[in-house]
Design a protein that fits this description.
This protein is an alpha+beta fold and 175 residues long. The chain has one domain: Glutamine Phosphoribosylpyrophosphate, subunit 1, domain 1, CATH 3.60.20. Helices cover 27% and strands 33% of the residues. The chain is built from five helices and eleven strands; from the N terminus they run E-H-E-E-E-E-E-H-H-E-E-E-E-E-H-H. The strands form three sheets. The protein has a five-stranded antiparallel β-sheet. It has a four-stranded antiparallel β-sheet with strand order 4-5-8-9, covered by helices on one side. Strands 6-7 form a two-stranded antiparallel sheet. A hairpin with a 2-residue loop joins strand 2 and strand 3. Helix 2 runs antiparallel to helix 3. The longest helix is centred in the first third of the chain and has 12 residues. The two termini are 28 Å apart. The model has no long low-confidence stretch (mean pLDDT 86).
């Protein structure tokens, strides 16, 4: 299995310990022991595992890409060819913001943290899954729910009504 996981918080957090991202990444590498790459800053961490993955960290940015993302913009495509997709994505995001997504094609999931902003995205067909939650002011994400559940401060909660409806009905309610 391969995937993407991480977290972002506007406030510096003790979750920056390497153990936090290692625990999350264990969930996306557990079936095939694929190589994990990660980057950590005071405001967050990202990890990717498997083939077609890239991580970039510089100038207060963290970027992680999982999958076969390609750029239609010739300048970003050349930058990706020379320095990697995550580096090109960081530069494109700095110039265009979320509009950089219009220059991407292929099957991918990605995370970009730039100062006070975070962007999570997946390809138009949702080929690469990406789940997220906001827990105590921390944006936690992963390609599997197991990766999110491995975040140290994650505390899942559900309402009794939802559990009751799901367990006593022959149907599951929509969102």
């Amino acid at each position: 299995m391969s995937g993407l996981c991480g977290w972002f918080c506007r406030e510096r957090s003790s979750a920056t310990a390497p153990d936090a991202i290692a625990a999350m990444a264990a969930a996306i590498t557990r079936f095939d022991s694929s190589t994990m790459r990660s980057a950590t800053a005071g405001f967050g961490s990202v990890a990717v595992a498997g083939g077609d993955t890239d991580v970039f960290q510089a100038d207060g940015r963290l970027v992680a890409v999982w999958g076969n993302a390609r750029f239609s913009d010739p300048g970003l495509a050349a930058l990706a060819q020379n320095h990697g997709v995550a580096h090109a994505l960081a530069q494109g995001y700095a110039r265009k913001g979320a509009d950089v997504l219009t220059d991407l094609c292929g099957a991918f999931a990605l995370a970009v943290f730039d100062g006070d902003e975070a962007m999570l995205a997946t390809d138009r067909m949702g080929t690469h899954p990406l789940c997220y939650c906001i827990n105590a002011g921390v944006l936690v994400f992963g390609s599997t729910l197991d990766a999110i559940g491995a975040f140290p401060q994650f505390r899942p909660r559900s309402t009794g009504r939802l559990c009751s409806t799901t367990c006593t009905s022959t149907w599951c309610p929509g969102p």
